Amino acid sequence: MDMLLAIPAVGFYLIALLLVIPGLANNNGIKVTPVFAAACMAIIFHILLLKDLIFAGAGQNLSILNVASLISVIIACLTTVAMLKMRIWFLLPVIYSFAAINLAASALLPGAFITHLEAHPQVLLHISLALFSYSTLTIASLYAIQLAWLDHKLKHKKSLAMNPNIPPLMMVERQLFKIIIVGYALLTVTLLTGYLFINDIIAQGKTHKAILSLIAWCVYSVLLWGHYQQGWRGRRVIWFSLVGAFLLTLAYFGSRFVKEIIIGM
C-alpha cells in the first residue's frame, strides 16, 4: 500500500521538476498552472503516505525518516503556495527533489519511534510549532543560497536580466528577511512552549536540543539586529542564515540520526 502512494508522489514531483528546470536554463517562461497542478498531486499522495506511516497502529510513529518526510512536505506545501505570487523557481528543484528523496526513504526504510501525543496535547502543540519553525527557517536558508548565487553572478558581471524566471537580487533579500522574521517568531514560541510544557526538556538526551535551539535563536536575533540596526547585507547575512539552519538541524536530528540510523544499522 505504501508503495502505491510513494510511486505516484515521486512521479508527480519529477513532473514538476521537468516543468521547472528547462525554464531556468533558458529564457522561456515557466507556466505556473501545470507546475502547481503536478506539485499539488505530489503533495496529496505524499500526505496520504505519511498518514499511513505515522498513524499506523497505536500511537504515532515519529521516526527520523517520517519526521524528515513530514518537514519536506511542509516545505513543499509552503513553497508551492508561494509560487503563485513570487518567483521562487530557483528553489523548487531543490525542494521537490528533497521531498521525493525523503518520502522514498520513509517508504522503503521504515523505522519506529512510537509516541502518544493524544495524551499530551501541549506536547503536540510544541512539536507542531517546532516543525513549522524549522521548515520556515530551512526555506530561509535556501533563499540565502539563492541570494549568494545571484550575488556571485552579478559580481562576475553575468547578466541575468534576460531570464524572466530569475528574480532581482533586492527582491530575494526582502523576501529572505520576511521569511526569517516569520520563522524567528515561530522559533521563539517553540522555545517558550518547550520550557513551559516539557518538564524534562533539559534532561539527559534532550539538553543538546534545548541548547542548540537557543543558540540558533541567538544567531537569528543577531542577524535581524544587524540587518535592521547596522545595515548588514550580503555575505554576512547569508552565513548567519546558514549557520542558524545548521544549528537547528543538529538540534532536531543530531542524536536521533545517531541512534536510529547509525546505531540501528
From TrEMBL:
Entry's Gene Ontology BP terms: cytochrome complex assembly
Highest rank taxon of the organism: Bacteria
Bilayer-crossing regions: 6-25, 32-50, 62-81, 88-109, 129-150, 176-198, 210-228, 237-255
Xref: Pfam families: Cytochrom_C_asm
Keyword flag Transmembrane helix: yes
UniProt entry tagged with the keyword Membrane: yes
GO cellular-component term (any): plasma membrane
Cytochrome c assembly protein domain mapped to chain residues: 39-262
Molecular function in Gene Ontology: heme binding
Assigned keywords, A-Z: Membrane, Transmembrane, Transmembrane helix
PANTHER family in the record: INNER MEMBRANE PROTEIN YPJD
Name used for this protein in its record: Inner membrane protein YpjD
Species name: Photobacterium angustum
Biological classification of the source: Bacteria, Pseudomonadati, Pseudomonadota, Gammaproteobacteria, Vibrionales
